[in-house]
């Protein structure tokens, strides 16, 4: 065999080896940051499902590592972390991001139904038909992932149940920014205290505050029932959690991977709404039946809800008008969001939730 023939044989063998043994790329890991604990709860099961589906539908190309309990970044610093790329994906609340996202801050209201699905679906529709909301994210180097609601507000306290604004009686209470404004304008006899959500437990335990605004499903997670004697479910208002991905990370994904995220994220929104409603029922039952930390649980009637909304409505509109000085579409976003809330509420009343409609269709 001549040297030339030997070289051809070697090259042919190498080409066959390359074709038969493709090099498998290492899966890419994206880092998701959250403040919640890794407990076995409906919301966390939905989150695990999401991570598993991303891996499965990208054929193992993308893996999600979930960093629980602020282990990657403090909750108040989440927006900066996602914008800079310290975290690839995270959920953020308007409480800490209004300066960055003036329009998105309008998703947090003290009026309207506190229903998980109604609020999230209404805001999803807003995101779909309001380019300014997506542009707001892009300016902060982020891409939209999903949105879900924390559900109905609750007022926790260790003095008396806050059934109406008249019973604050000078208590020191951690309130949302909009509630602070309502308190000032309506002359509620309350002393607003500013502190992060994760500090509520220690502040109530030490007596630094007498009460706080929270969300029903978060009470067991953050053990607020251990330091509160009364919990009042107001039945109105909501805080939306915006899930966003670092824009550079998003742009580095292939079109096929981006499509997977879009599809799975939409399914996640519905699963998170169903999980939220399930957790609400679980939270109510746990609090009411807890003998070690007995806590009175109250649900407001229509008359009591109206007293709170009377104080909140002027503040909500004034907030939108003030925001309009920075973001011209603010009033329109506020008004259309209220319309979408009513629209989705009517759909649910008529046909039920999506998972209920699916079960009927299956039968």
Task: Give a structural overview.
The protein is an alpha/beta fold. 49% of the residues lie in helices and 17% in strands. The chain contains 13 helices and 13 strands. It has helices spanning 3-20, 42-57, 78-84, 116-129, 131-139, 177-185, 200-206, 218-221, 247-252, 255-289, 302-323, 330-351, 354-362, and strands at 28-33, 62-67, 89-92, 109-113, 142-149, 153-157, 172-174, 191-193, 211-215, 230-233, 236-238, 240-246, 296-299. The strands form 3 sheets. Strands 8-7-9-6-10-13 form a 6-stranded mixed beta sheet, covered by helices on one side. A 5-stranded mixed beta sheet has the order 2-1-3-12-5. Strand 7 (172-174), helix 6 and strand 8 (191-193) form a beta-alpha-beta unit. Helix 2 (42-57) runs antiparallel to helix 10 and helix 6 packs across helix 11 (302-323). The longest helix has 35 residues, at 255-289. The chain starts with a helix and ends with a helix. Residues 16-23 have low confidence and may be disordered.
Q: Output the number of helix runs.
A: 13
Number of strands: 13
Integer-rounded radius of gyration: 24 Å
Which consecutive residue ranges, at least 5 long each, have pLDDT under 50? 16-23
Class computed from helices, strands and strand pairing: alpha/beta
In N-to-C order, the SSE pattern is: HEHEHEEHHEEEHEHEHEEEHHEHHH
Distance between the termini: 74 Å
Helix content: 40-55%
Largest sheet: 6 strands, mixed
Please state the overall shape, judged from the principal axes of the Cα atoms.
Answer: globular
Mean pLDDT: 90
Q: Reading side by side through the largest sheet, how are the strands ordered?
A: 8-7-9-6-10-13
Q: How large is the share of residues in beta strands?
A: 15-25%
